[in-house]
Amino acid sequence: MTEPTITQLEPMPGDWRRALAVVAHPDDLEYGCSAAIAAWTDEGREVAYVLATRGEAGIDTLSPAECGALREREQRASAAVVGVSEVEFLDHRDGVVEYGIALRRDIAAAIRRHRPELVITLNHRDTWGGVAWNTPDHRAVGRATLDAAADAGNRWIFPELTEQGLEPWDGVRWVAVAGSTTPTHAVDASPGLERAVRSLLEHRTYIEALTDEDPETYVRGFLTGYARATGERFGGRPAVAFELLGR
């Protein structure tokens, strides 16, 4: 059954203080989400990043050891541009992340550490709008994040986390899925769009391996085009869209 398209997107809730973004790879958040994060940190909200991998399998011309260290540096620099200082890596293997108990436990532990009200993740569905197959890592991490948001609040799931001093956290109120083809809400991208461009440009080594186009031309065209298209459903303002799931 095809899900109905929501014509106009609602503003994201504003009554929260802490968010945790959980994705598979360096650059996942920068492809369309970081303008919202810049706006939130400007407002004094706390945002932290958790990445399942270091993206070490992402550049064919670099060995995983060299690539992982480089992409970690790029990710930390990228996060700093939009006001995020806490960046954690779970050290699952890039390209072969498996949905399962180990991944759910690691993400639940991160949620207990950071105690967010809002959790952000990336499209967990099989495709990008039915036209391109999504990667196994995105699907696994997105699904595990949705499940871990509930796991984190149940002391009888992963009781070993409590033994490690990580008390249950049942304060996650929403999970926001970026890159969804069925978005429900949006954030005005105008205040953070230039920083979003600079943030994605910090992944320069990866971008240069991805395209022959000038990196800034590529990044600016991608992000502004996405923001403008989303804005057509958000009062004409450039925007970042999310599918907001309540708990």
TrEMBL record:
One of its GO terms (biological process) is glycoside metabolic process. The keyword DNA repair does not apply. Keywords: Zinc. GO terms for molecular function: hydrolase activity, acting on carbon-nitrogen (but not peptide) bonds, in linear amides. Pfam families: PIG-L. Coiled coil: none annotated. The keyword Zinc applies. This is PIG-L family deacetylase. It comes from Streptomyces griseicoloratus.
